[in-house]
Design brief:
With 106 residues, this protein is an all-alpha fold. It has one domain: Up-down Bundle (Monooxygenase), CATH 1.20.1280. 76% of the residues lie in helices and 0% in strands. The chain contains 4 helices and no strands. The N and C termini lie far apart (63 Å).
């Protein structure tokens, strides 16, 4: 196989992998968002995941690899969103009087 053809295929495979990996965060966001409950998710795991994905973005920038940047950009955004919900849950559980659900109140 020609090197340029292999390189093109590698980019397509990487883009597909990135797309599917990024989609994997959507169920967690959908679970956490409407219920505003993340009690079954680990704060340490979400923090490590968000930091790790952020470092992949830096790596992609250094390598000038748009697939790495894009995939991890989406993943970081979704993981950070779930992490934000988790932190809100922790704060609300420690201060229940401040835990007013703004979606229910007019």
């Amino acid at each position: 196989m020609d090197e340029s053809v292999a390189s093109d295929w590698a980019a397509y495979i990487g883009a597909c992998a990135a797309f599917l990996s990024s989609l994997s965060y959507i169920p967690q966001v959908r679970k956490a968002w409407p219920r505003e409950s993340t009690t079954d998710l680990s704060l340490g795991m979400l923090t490590a995941l968000t930091c790790g994905l952020s470092l992949w973005i830096v790596y992609g920038i250094i390598r000038e690899d748009w697939v790495i940047i894009a995939a991890n950009g989406v993943g970081t955004t979704l993981a950070a969103l779930v992490l934000t919900f988790k932190v809100k849950d922790i704060i609300q559980s420690k201060h229940p009087a401040n835990g007013i659900n703004r979606r229910i109140c007019p």
